Please model this.
Amino acid sequence: MNSKDNGTDPVVATFAAGALLAAILVFTLSAFVALIGTILALVAWDEPLKMGRISIQPEQARAFVTRGIVGALLVPAFAVFAAVLLKFKIDPDAWLFLFLGGYTAGSFGVEFVLIDKYFQKDGTAEFEGNAQLPPPFETAVNGEAKPFSFASWDDEEERRK
Model:
């Protein structure tokens, strides 16, 4: 043991505890966002869901849930691989967090990484949707259209007669 710690042990312990609390907070908030996203994706599973300017297409909803399921399978599989390779045991209470963390990383995490595809280089958002204008009205052509002529000062008097 080094007796010359200069009093930094409490500082390091406080920093480590703060980092652990921040990680727990980020994990909890991310899991909550993934839960809300999954509920919205299930609502938009068959037909598009529109909430103001944001719309969720069925393809996007299915991709969100599919990525979550793949993540929920891959993260525990990697944990088992690491446990076998490094010869350690996984606590049975950790399995729920492994599946939940995998689903969160697969759905919300991948969506967070892919968010750049929704923005253009100038920072404006480009959302998928029906941004096309309807086709212009066709004018009914009955013969030849009359040429345009400007009104004269006595037009009203001629109409009154």
In short: The longest strand covers residues 49-51.
